[in-house]
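At this stage, I wrote out one protein's amino acid sequence and its backbone structure tokens, and that material follows here:
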Amino acid sequence: MNRSLIALTLAFATLGFAGCGGTAPPTEEKKDALHLEAEAALATMNAADSSLESFLDRSYAHVVFPNVGKAGLIAGASFGRGEVYKGGRVVGYATLEQGTIGLQAGGQNFAEIIAFENEEAYNRFTSNRFELTAQASAVAIKTGAAAAAKYTNGVAIFTHTKGGLMVEAAVGGQRFTFQPAERP
């Protein structure tokens, strides 16, 4: 895939979601709501695949995007906000922006978890140098999927469709932004 196409689709996603706010939720109430959503998404995905919890326990760190909205008609965009976990605790917040172009129509919501195999992959993410291109593949959560999952370039991606219908034969990429959690 052409790098300028990726840049164009990511620029579209950035412009399309410029009004979505910063990386961390702006208030303690919204941080609490995001935390509840992330925990609920983890519980739902663990219920669908009991091997996921063990996979995440063995990972260096992971990020949970409990609700990613995606819509498209030829050009598409997605946005989601999530929590970053390391050592079993929340260490920061992240946003996911995605742009796509190609044959597509519809909209859907999904949850996404990105697991980091090692410190190097985690550091790429937390230094805001992390993007996923069309070559990255996600594992749809179903029984036993995490047990068979493999890391690619230090990351493993799991998705769980929550609702909607999206028909697509499109290319694009995901870009992420990380912000550390405030220390008490």
About this structure: The CA atoms of residues 5 and 105 lie 19 Å apart. The first helix runs from residue 3 to 16.
